[in-house]
Amino acid sequence: MNLLDIINKAKAEKAKTLDLSQQGLRLLPPELFEIQSLEELNLDRNKLVELPDDIGLLKNLKSLSVSENDLMELPDTIGNLTALEHLYLGYNSLSELPATVGNLTNLHTVNIAKNQLLELPDEIGNWTKVVKLSLHDNMLTTIPDSIGKLKSLVKLYLDNNDLTEVPASLGNLASLEILMISGNQLSVIPQEFGKLSKLRELVLDANQLETLPEALADCKSLETISINENPMEDGLPRAILDKKGLKIDQ
């Protein structure tokens, strides 16, 4: 079956899922956006440079995966996909996200790793249902304070970016269990991290840290801190060294 046959069949059957991965696609045919029934669309491993504005017509989409393409930007209409729960955009060439991603308030998992993101819009603070956020291997120099509003976030991956600091508002992530910030340029960790009562694993390898805030000893669930490849010239506070049940990799 050729591509249009596949799409027409899906439309006729009111398909809820459609897998168009590894089809060598450079453009998406307009007929695709007539399948209003679609809840899951997989476009992984194609050659897409952009998504057309018409992507916003697929208002029932719950999962959109466009990983391993050549995406340079996202259309503002992505914000029309308000039912979206899973968004996978890893391994592309995105340098920014439109502010309209803030409309995607039902998102649970977001992967935008391995792109060229330089910054994030403040509107990501609306992602209050997101449980896992993967932003590793980008070119981020800052993280907006609004990230502190992601009250459902359990796993946050910020490793291998160009961060010189992280916002104190990360200390407000009451559900956070795993925080990866290795491979950045951090020289200091906010003492507000001490409020992360559910944090279990904190990975800070390959930064520019001289010490850690004593407040980390207050993280009552903390099991592992990893600080390999940091100067650590001031050593660790006694409160952290004496914390029962804490494993320190250094």
Task: Annotate the secondary structure layout.
Layout lengths: L2 H10 L4 E3 L20 E3 L20 E3 L20 E3 L20 E3 L20 E3 L20 E3 L20 E3 L20 E3 L20 E3 L11 H4 L5 E3 L1
Parallel strand pairs: 1-2, 2-3, 3-4, 4-5, 5-6, 6-7, 7-8, 8-9, 9-10, 10-11
Task: Describe, in plain words, how this protein is organized in 3D.
There is one protein chain. The protein has two domains: 1-112, Ribonuclease Inhibitor (Leucine-rich repeat, LRR (right-handed beta-alpha superhelix)); 117-250, Leucine-rich repeat, LRR (right-handed beta-alpha superhelix), CATH 3.80.10.10. The chain contains two helices and eleven strands. The chain has helices spanning 3-12, 238-241, and strands at residues 17-19, 40-42, 63-65, 86-88, 109-111, 132-134, 155-157, 178-180, 201-203, 224-226, 247-249. The protein has an eleven-stranded parallel sheet, with no helix packed on it. The chain is elongated, with a radius of gyration of 20 Å. The chain starts with a helix and ends with a strand. The model has no long low-confidence stretch (mean pLDDT 97).
